[in-house]
Design brief:
With about 140 residues, this protein is mostly helical. It contains five helices and two strands, in the order H-E-H-E-H-H-H. It has two domains: about 1-55, no CATH class; about 60-135, no CATH class. The protein binds flavin-adenine dinucleotide.
Amino acid sequence: MRYDAGAVSGQKTFDVAVIGAGVFGAWTAWHLAKRGQRVALIDAYGPANSRASSGGETRIIRMGYGADELYTRWSQKSLAQWKEFFAATQQPLFLETGVLWMGGNEDERLRQTGETLKLGLTALDAASLSQRAAS
Ligand SMILES: Cc1cc2nc3c(=O)[nH]c(=O)nc-3n(C[C@H](O)[C@H](O)[C@H](O)COP(=O)(O)OP(=O)(O)OC[C@H]3O[C@@H](n4cnc5c(N)ncnc54)[C@H](O)[C@@H]3O)c2cc1C
């Protein structure tokens, strides 16, 4: 598919072309633009299209990656930036709810996620869950 970015923006030349306007492409393009780069963000199906895995109204900011601490730290760091971005748009784009994650006692990945996250995690057993649901 031939796409003329200049036809949309009026610009003829760009410093960087980012192909794919899913969350990673859009985020990369936005950060490059903030640094003064002239960026063409190109997507075969347009921005926020339903084929993008990051498109949709039900995506979560995920921090649970077991022992893969790097992803958790990146996600924690990006959440602060997302919140700044959401505030700047003045749109209700983000609803902070927390998450109930269920797993068995032998779930090693869940145990590792808990260790990586350290803060903000409450472990509940079946009895205390039932108690909460009843109250
Ligand atoms: C159904 C689903 C749900 C998910 N939910 C979550 C979630 O809630 N939270 C989470 O952290 N992770 C989630 N993930 C994982 C998440 O999708 C990825 O981590 C991340 O969104 C990928 O972003 P991306 O920008 O690389 O890709 P995408 O969001 O898929 O964007 C790729 C873009 O590239 C475009 N494109 C593709 N080929 C071309 C081409 N040849 N030329 C031009 N454009 C092209 C597409 O049209 C699309 O817009 C989910 C994955 C799936 C499949």
